[in-house]
Amino acid sequence: MKEWLSAALALALTTLAPPALTVPATPPAPAGAVGNGSAPAGLRFAGERRGTAGRPADGPERRLLAAVNRERARRGLAPLAADSRLDAAAAAHSRAMAERGFFDHCDPDTGSLPWRRVEDAGYLWRAVGENVAAGRSDAADVLAQWLGSRGHRDNLLSRDFVETGIGYASDPDDRPGVRLDRDGDCAPDRRGGPYRHYWTMVFAAPSRHDAGGREEGER
């Protein structure tokens, strides 16, 4: 049973340069889940590979994961483990934002939401959350921005999440007119940008039926 999703609705626009945006966390849980309320030329996909094995050790996703786990350790929390399916879901969403000019948890062209992307990647979850950011090229800056927002920070430091996936995509030719959704209804109602850098970090805890695709306890 899907127990809960971390959720926050408000968009937060920062005034730091270069332009940077964050969306605090995931939209509300779908029916049946219990929510806690809380390539065009030049496009590069740092998170394009499925899984972490093929990732450069110094890639942006690895740097962000290391920084997040250092912060969790500093606060006495267990590290988040990378999961290749969550990586795939996060990478696909960052790629979609960069390719199609939107910034939100909900894909305005397909209606896709975080929990659906995670399920489509083959991950069975009992808890899931998502942070996204745009406008920052450096993992440390993204983490600092998230830590300054309650919704993001709650996801980053939750004891309920044990696995994560990270995706980063950059488009040096990004243009103004990126679609933004002020009220979280998956219908863009304003435009901004260019942001050039798009990050997605998915947080999750697996269902007891998801043990690498096996029932818990199977070998």
Description:
This protein has 219 residues and is of the alpha/beta class. Helix content is 25%, strand content 21%. The strands form 2 sheets. Strands 1, 2, 3, 4, 5, 7, 8 and 11 form an 8-stranded mixed sheet that branches. A 3-stranded mixed sheet has the order 6-9-10. α1 (60-74) packs across α4. It starts with a strand and ends in a 13-residue tail after the last strand.
Quick take:
The chain is an alpha/beta fold and 219 residues long.
- Given the C-alpha coordinates, what overall shape results? globular
The CA-CA distance between the termini, in Å, is 23 Å
Estimate the strand proportion: 15-25%
**Strand-and-helix sequence, N→C?**
EEEEHEHEHEHHEEEE
Structural class by helix and strand composition: alpha/beta
Number of strand elements: 11
* Unreliable residue runs: 1-54, 213-219
Radius of gyration: 16 Å
The pLDDT mean sits at 75
Give helix % range.
Answer: 25-40%
Helical stretch tally: 5
The major beta sheet can be summarized as: 8 strands, mixed
